[in-house]
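sorry to bug you again but im stuck and you know this stuff better than me. below you get a single protein, a line of residues and a line of whole numbers that encode the local backbone shape. mainly i need to know what kind of three dimensional shape the backbone takes. anything you notice is useful, everything is just below:

***
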Amino acid sequence: MPPETPATPLLEVQGLQKHFKVRHSRNPVKAVEQLSFAVPAGSTFAIVGESGCGKTTCAKLILGLEPPSAGSIRFDGRDVASLAGADRRTWRRQVQAVFQDPYASLNPRLRVATIVAEPILANEKPTRAELDRRIAELLDVVGLPADAARRYPHEFSGGQRQRVAIARALALRPRLLVLDEPTSALDVSIRAQILNLLSDIQQQYGLTYLLIAHDLALVEHFADAVGVMYLGDMVEQGPTAQVFGAPRHPYTRALLASVLRPDPDVPLPVGMIRGEIGSALAPPPGCKFHPRCPQAIDACRSDKPVPTPFSPLHWAACHVEAARATGAPTAAAPAAGAGTHLEPALP
């Protein structure tokens, strides 16, 4: 098992699994497999990986939008699956989401005041004066003027719409925010503003963030810890500085190598993975990354690697790295199709 976080976690996931049945197929889509991680209160945990690796499915499981096939989700020490009635309603209030596309996540027919007020009215019975006060406070927190309450989403820019979405997420005073690619639909010039806003809000309210992201630069700047997913599995996990500074899994190294530097004099990176991510309907045996891994050994093709700790909080699931850590030999034939110059895994 991966090493445990010493701090008391607000969110703790153990052995989480999600399989989707497919018509005309005996095999399910294995979207998430045996996912385990813990997020201490007040911190930010990021999940990164290519499209199709299971990041968003994990977010939906945490939010209760999909039931897990196996495993457990514990929030503030309590198993979410065991919650019912008032306890489950309280949990739902405490876990909110900010979605990727503010153009799609806001109802275009409602004014901003109604959008922000909806979660409050669904859970509480405030007076009109109290509701107006809370709406004004929420808009102020996200940096929008008071008159924004009377306007419709189409009257705002993308960054302003995302601020409205954040205000709505904060309306019930949650403890955990699930941020699913919160800046990917925004212009580059606006992304820093939204990230700074989220950082300020986290410090002001002591929020805990679960961040789903493609942008590795964003994760390096914003997250305290990071988990790297590949085809439903967590292949590496640890404090962001350790994972980015000394990556142990070849997939993590490939992701970091694929980040282009904003300098025309820096040559294009080499040594990255090629090919497409495997099928979640029929994933490769052993290590799922082995068909694309330039250092795969025979064990990678038959045996699923277990997490190997490299520091108290940093681990990776890789046969080769585990052998190196113990001094064992790693003689191997190269993976099928592996080469010295490989194509980028990410755009």
